[in-house]
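Field guide to reading this record: the first block holds the primary sequence, the second block holds the structure written as discrete tokens, and the final block holds curator observations. Each block starts with its own label. This record concerns Nucleoside diphosphate kinase, catalogued under organism Acetohalobium arabaticum.

BLOCK 1 — SEQUENCE
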Amino acid sequence: MEQTFFMIKPDGTRRNLVGEIISRIEKKGLEIKAMKMMQISNRLAKKHYAEHIDKPFFSDLKEFITSGPVVAMVVEGPGAIKIVRRMMGQTDPAESTPGSIRGDYALSIDRNVVHGSDSPESAEREIDLFFSEDEII
Ligand code: RTP
Ligand code: MG
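BLOCK 2 — STRUCTURE
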């Protein structure tokens, strides 16, 4: 069994897409092992998006991801990391197939509704950043 970190971003909570998105995860057969609604601090944003800290879009990304509540999850299933990434669609919603979360609910790259870990290393790092061991069922 593989675990991934999955998050509904502030635009998703603001637009009341939480139920819709969680429903897709559940219907796919993936298991939610941990979940919380929280507001990301500047400090956590820098850690979570450390790989992008020197990119030109970083300050906008940090501003956005800290702008409202997110719903953070640990999602488990066989091949969960790749499966969740495929369910999300491409980073740029304009490139995302209809039927994917971003393909169905997003219009722009800087408001793309969800995050999912992109590799086993990211999954381990991100789960550890957002959850303590006793929060994971
Ligand atoms: P995420 O980490 O949020 O799940 O998104 P991702 O893996 O699909 O994309 P990533 O390359 O990790 O980028 C993180 C977020 O930064 C914003 N971004 N903007 N303007 C741009 O060229 C650009 N590139 C990336 C996006 O909001 C992306 O989700
Ligand atoms: Mg990423």
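BLOCK 3 — OBSERVATIONS
Residues 2-135 form a domain with the Alpha-Beta Plaits fold (CATH 3.30.70.141).
Residues 52, 57, 61, 91, 109-110, 112, 115-116, 118 surround ribavirin triphosphate (ligand 1) (CB under 6 Å).
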